[in-house]
Every structure is written in C-alpha cells, then in structure tokens.
Specification:
With 436 residues, the protein is mainly α. Among the domains are: 1-32 and 48-186, Serine Threonine Protein Phosphatase 5, Tetratricopeptide repeat; 343-428, Tetratricopeptide repeat domain (Serine Threonine Protein Phosphatase 5, Tetratricopeptide repeat), CATH 1.25.40.10. It is built from 24 helices and no strands. Helix 15 (258-270) packs antiparallel against helix 16, helix 15 packs parallel to helix 17 (293-304) and helix 20 packs antiparallel against helix 21.
Length: 436
C-alpha cells in the first residue's frame, strides 16, 4: 500500500468490490436502493442532481464508492457530512474513499471523527486499520482491526479487512486464518478466497493458491485480481501459457493495473519472447512511471536482445527511482561487464553486495568481475561465499572450477566440475521443463 506500488492497486480493487457489503451489513444505507427523483432546480455545477437530504447524499456517495468513482464519492459524502455532521457512517464512507485514493491521513482523520460520534463503529475501526496499514503503521492497524472484529465477530467483511492488513505486512499465517474465517462466515465471498490465495502465494503453497484463485473466479468471473493471482500461481508452477492467458484476462478486466502488465511481461520474458515482454513493461511504466521494477525488468529484456545500452538506461532509471534497488545495480553491473567496462561493472556489483550481502547472485556477479580483472583469489572468495549461501548454485561451482584451473589447482577444479555436473543431473531429474 505504497504510493507507487502496483500491489496497492490490487488491494483497492478487492476492497472496492465489497464496499457495498460492509456499508449495508454495518448499518449504512444501501446505495442500490431506489430513491425519489431530485428536482432539476437543485442541479449542481457538475450537471448531476444534487441530493436534498443527507441520507440521499450518503446513498449516492456509497454508490460511487462501490463503482470506484472516488472523486465523486468524496464530493457526495462531503455533502452528506455538511448536511448531517453527526452521522458516523458518512465519515466512515468518506474515509474509505480517501483510503482508496491513498490519502491515508485524511482517511484516519475521518474514521477518528466517526468513532468520536460512535465509539463502537466496527466499520470505522476496520477502515482506520486499513488506512494505517497504508501508512506502514502495522501494529496500530492490526489493533484497530482486531477491535473491529471483537465488536462485530460475525461480520465477514470486518474480518476480511484484518486479513488484508495482515497480507500487507506479509503476515501470511494470520492472513490465511482470517480469510478462512471469512469464508466460513460467507462462503460465497469471492474476495475472501482471493485474499487466502495471496496468503498461500506468500507462503509458497502454490497448489492451494491455485485452488483458491479458481474458486474466486468461479464465484466472480469478472474478478481481475483473482485472474492475476492465478496467473502468478501458474507462473510459479512453470505453466507459462496458462499464466499468460490469465494475465491477459486480468488485463481485459483491469486495463489500468500496472501489475498485470509487469507480471505478463515476466511470463513473456521467461517464454523467450523479449519483444512482447518489453511491450508489457512499457505499458506498466506508462501506468506507474515512478515504480522502479518495470524499468529493471525491461532492462533485462533489452539485455536478452543484446541491446545493452538500452538495458543500462533502464537499469539507471530504476536506480534513480529506487537508490537501494540491489537487483538493478547487479543487472547494470553485468551489462557493463559484457561491454568490458570493468570499472563500472565493479562499482555496480560491489554496491549490489553492499546493499544485500546475503544475495548469492550479487556475490557471484562481483566474483565474475574480479575474475575478469585477474584478481583470482578475490574471485574465488566471492564464489565460495555465493556457494555457502546457495549450495546448489551451479554457475558458481563452474566458475570457481575455472578459477582453480587458472591457479593450477587441478584437484579442486575437478571437484567443483564434478559437483556442478551432479547438480545439473539432479535438476534435470526433478524439474520439468519450464513452460511444458
């Protein structure tokens, strides 16, 4: 739930789907209920009929909120508050709109006002918890949502709010538990199945994630986030055509979600189609120009096409946007290495190791640069540390074998070569061909 994090787009999408359920279940007027026509003489400057009562303004505000028309929702709900400043539901609904707009301070303020009017308003507590999670205030966010659950233990939507907060702080076990309880309370809630799917994805339980995403899609065939999640599950299983199909469906349903294109780009890249990957990354960049990852991923696809200058330009932009992005430094360092710019390659790979000293790929990349510089002992030290961190790192064994050969240590070179072959044979036996 960061300003430029595409994941927040998914979370907003999920919450938008069930705003109506929360509002009705916890006492807000049903925004789909029929209402009497508003006299034309009351028309506002924007050309739509202006509600003449606070209840009508609240009804229309909630209707806009359900449709994710956030600016209009805020305008109508502000009108409802002006007409009836003592209605906590108007503040809670406007808070929800502010939270979806990622204006978390305003959301917290409105929820706090709602709670001053009604200290037991579970909806306001849950929304405030969601907004606090957006501010990375996770302890307080969970506390608010937990109090909301205590006040309304049988309300599935409040329970789901807490699951979403747990997901945001990557507490997958608690997120799964809350999503499971939400499903028990309301088995037809597609968003609860989708939330539990994300919990399983976070824990690496791909088969359960796939089953939950499929169930969410069965319940709501227009649920973009569920298609995105299922695409991720297929991707992790190596089923790339199925992943691309689900990402494409998600793109049709949510064409403005940059994460859809980022993930489809990854699948195209791994399928050996860097041109389509570049198209998807470029679209993600247009939608989220301040998000660093699509630049880094596009750089990798340019790298695969041996267009190293464009790759370096994209890695550099990713670093500008995210100065501690170790993968971008590592990738740019390797591009410089290919161009035989060893000084810049060393600087970038060394920075990647400094930023993430437990990344075996960063150590292996720095070792390669040292190897090319002729610093054989230093290269062996980095290869050895990479192997310590990842004992199944085939390339590190192979390159360390070459370094030992250069030193004339044939016994160690032979041992590393044998180990690399053993690991390759094991990988061939245990890993189906990606995309099959």
């Amino acid at each position: 739930m960061h300003a430029h994090d595409p994941v927040s787009t998914r979370l907003s999408y999920v919450l938008c789907v069930w705003t109506l359920g929360i509002a009705v279940a916890l006492g807000a007027p049903d925004p789909t209920a029929p209402s009497s026509a508003t006299p034309a003489s009351e028309a506002d400057p924007m050309g739509s009929a202006a509600p003449v009562t606070a209840a009508e303004a609240l009804r229309q505000g909630n209707a806009h909120l359900v449709k994710n028309e956030l600016d209009e929702a805020v305008r109508r709900l502000t009108q409802a508050i002006r007409l009836d400043p003592k209605n906590p539901e108007a503040y809670a609904s406007r808070a929800h709109a502010w939270a979806e707009k990622q204006e978390y301070d305003r959301a917290v303020a409105d929820c706090t006002q709602a709670l001053e009017l009604d200290p037991k308003n579970a909806r306001a507590l849950a929304i405030r918890g969601y907004a606090k999670a957006g501010k990375q205030e996770f302890v307080s966010a969970v506390a608010d949502c937990t109090e909301a659950v205590r006040l309304a233990p049988g309300n599935a939507d409040v329970r789901l709010f807490r699951a979403l907060v747990y997901l945001e702080q990557e507490d997958y076990d608690h997120a799964i538990a809350d999503a499971t309880e939400t499903i028990r309370l309301n088995a037809s809630a597609a968003d609860a199945w989708e939330a539990r799917c994300r919990g399983h994805l976070g824990k690496g339980d791909v088969d359960r994630a796939l089953a939950d995403a499929t169930r969410a899609i069965q319940l709501d065939p227009q649920f973009a986030a569920a298609f995105l999640d299922r695409g991720m599950a297929y991707y992790l299983k190596g089923e790339l055509p199925a992943a691309i199909a689900d990402y494409s469906k998600a793109a049709t349903l949510a064409p403005d979600d940059p994460e859809v294109y980022l993930n489809r780009g990854l699948a195209h890249h791994d399928s050996g189609d860097p041109d389509r990957a570049i198209e998807d990354y470029t679209r993600a960049i247009r939608l989220a120009p301040k998000f660093a990852e699509p630049y880094c991923r596009r750089g990798l696809s340019y790298h695969a096409k041996r267009d190293y200058d464009r790759a370096i330009a994209d890695y550099s932009e990713a670093i500008r946007l995210a100065p501690k992005y170790d993968e971008a430094f590592l990738s740019r360092g390797l591009a410089y290495l290919v161009k035989k710019d060893l000084e810049r390659a060393w600087a970038d790979c060394n920075e990647a190791v400094r930023l993430n000293p437990k990344n075996p790929e960063a150590l292996h990349s720095r070792a390669l640069v040292r190897h090319h510089q002729g610093a054989i002992d230093a290269a062996i030290a980095d290869y050895t540390e990479a192997i310590r961190l990842d004992p199944a790192y085939i390339d590190a064994y192979q390159h360390r074998a070459q370094a030992y050969q250069q030193k004339g240590d044939q016994a160690r070179a032979a041992a590393d070569t044998a180990k690399a072959k053993e690991l390759e044979a094991g990988r061939a036996r245990n890993s189906p061909e990606r995309g099959s």
